[in-house]
Amino acid sequence: MLTNKELEKVNSWCAMNDPANVLRVRGEEPVFFRSGFSGIPNPVVSGGAVTGDGLQDALDKDKAFQGFMPPAGENPTMDQYDNLLAIFRSNPGTGCTTVMDMARIAAGFNPLNPDLKDNEKAFDDYVGRIMSAPFFFLNDSSRTEYHRGEKSWNLAVNDIVNLYEGIEKNSKDQIRKSIINMTQAAASRKNTRQTKSLFAQSTLNLENEIQVYIYSSNISLIENKGRKSTSRQTDISIVKARLTFYKNLWPSYAQIVMNRHVKMIDAWVKDNTTQPGANLVDLTCFKPTA
Q1: Which residues make Cβ contacts (< 8 Å) with residue 218, sequence separation at least 6?
Q2: pTM of the shown model
Q3: Contact 212, 204 (CB under 8 A)
Q4: Does position 276 have pLDDT exceeding 50, yes or no?
Q5: In angstroms, what CA-CA distances link 203 with 22, 84, 221?
Q6: Alpha-carbon torsion angle 78, 4, 105, 168, nearest 10
Q7: Is the dihedral of CA 148, 151, 152, 156 positive or negative?
Q8: How confident is the model at residue 88 (pLDDT cuts 50, 70, 90)?
Q9: Lower Cβ count inside 10 Å, N or C end of the chain?
């Protein structure tokens, strides 16, 4: 059981990161980010992944949850609400994606377009909100810097891609394409630095413990041509954080969260993964009909 002080922390964090309140203050309509924005280039990799032995059970519970959802625009009856809450309490994986989504929306971070104005600052805010949330314990965080002189961009691509450990193959392939495009731009625009927020990835591992891994990376390339020689320089920054979601405490604060926001696992993955034409399901909150 949570103490009154712990419950106050949960209530305070949820109120501060309530999507409805945040968007209202900004004067915005609820917009849930997806790839495929008209006119916005999307060359940067964003990944959301959920893995582990507990994944299928969490997905099954999400499906059961959807079975008790009222029609769009309606609040659930008391019976529906009780069933929704019972399922939500038993599903800490979806609890974790919900809390992370609240932090993302509150920060204004769009994981599908890291090059958007102020998005790097928003990403830092997003990570900060997660780290300050009473739902997580920060295990470790690190920033790794790579500074490389390159003999050839063609030879450098594989070496650069291999620096990204723990990234799925599909994401690595997209990272490779983005780096190739950058090397081509660097070669064609001598003495001009090419800089990109290359990728942002959030991974949840649902085992006996729920582990959250957050990665982000910036890369810059430049090719300087002198009178007698050409030099090529790569600068890479990779930030990683690993957190544990307080799984055992989830039943105690699930209702506080559900009354403000719900983000099921499949929707969370789609909303955090570069994927043209993604159809997302977002549930703002659930409160019973009196």
Answers
A1: 120, 195, 196, 197, 198, 236, 237
A2: 0.77
A3: yes
A4: no
A5: 25, 25, 28
A6: -100
A7: negative
A8: very high
A9: C
Q: Which two tokens stand for residue 86?
A: 């019972």
Helix (DSSP H) and strand (DSSP E) numbers for the chain: 10, 5
Q: Whole-angstrom Cα distance, residue 216 to residue 191?
A: 26
Cα–chain-centroid distance for residue 47?
7
Q: Match 């209530």 to its residue by tokens.
A: 11
In terms of C-beta density within 10 A (0-12 exposed, 13-18 middle, 19 or more buried), how is residue 214 classed?
A: buried
Torsion of CA 129, 132, 134, 139, to 10 degrees: 110
Look up residue 158 and give its two tokens. 């594989």
pLDDT digit string, tens, across residues 173-189: 777 877 787 788 777 87
- Domain boundaries defined on the chain: 4-271
Strand partners, 218: 197, 237
d(CA 246, CA 16): 20
